[in-house]
Amino acid sequence: MNKTISQRNNVNIIGNGNQTILFAHGFGCDQNMWRFVTPSFIDDYRIVLFDYVGCGQSDINQYNPARYSNLNGYAQDIINICDELDLNDVIFVGHSVSSMIGSLVSIKFPDLFSAMVFIGPSACYINDTQYFGGFGKKELLELLDVMDNNYLGWANFLAPIIMKNEDKPELVKELEESFCATDPIITRQFAETTFFSDNRKDLSRIKIPVLILQCSDDAIAPDAVGEYIAQQIQDSSYVKLDATGHCPHMSHPEETILAITNFLNKQYQTV
């Protein structure tokens, strides 16, 4: 029996509102990472949560290496979900690589999303002569090599760098366990797809309002990256958070919620 898209992507719907917020998790994560944020929106919005194929509680049997060799495959997951649920006028909230995945969806279907929120986005992770993405190509290749040869060591090394909040070791442990709970081959391909993507030319094609939440001391998406994205998107709002690390929706949910709420109030409410 063929599974529905909702079963494939472990879609969960909560909330009491008419307008939909679609939360899209980042690399190595799953929908559970949004649990500190969603309660603040549950009364006013319909919330759609999901796992990309190969992540969380998705149907791993549906994973196709060719499809997910670039971000368009993950964008198609979102398109499939929105189509099955007959969604429109969606507020898209994406963490990390999901920001660019959501951008691809928005460009392909301009009327599907009415606004987007990018948390710790990066349009290109690799430095070049006129752009600072935060990483050298050799550095990323070495990271992938570690994944191939010592996956558990890689997870143990990367989780604290991404989370960055030493005073919250339980979050570092959760992220490390999330890495280790996924198939190493799939996670390795997702890492390569993520870190070698380049969506800089796509940014100017985004025609809806976008909130960019830039974290302080973010080793994955440094300040220059967030500022670049804000400059390239015509209708963008840039907020520099006090939150440190790359996962403010987990480490600093109150500040993240406030920034998103202020943005949505500006976009959808009139005085």
From TrEMBL:
Molecular-function annotations in GO: hydrolase activity
Keyword Hydrolase: yes
Keyword check for Ubl conjugation: no
Swiss-Prot/TrEMBL keywords: Hydrolase
Taxonomy, superkingdom: Bacteria
Annotated AB hydrolase-1 domain residues: 21-256
A Pfam family per the record: Abhydrolase_6
UniProt-listed Gene3D superfamilies: alpha/beta hydrolase
Family: Belongs to the AB hydrolase superfamily.
Record protein name field: Alpha/beta hydrolase
Species, as recorded: Flavobacterium agrisoli
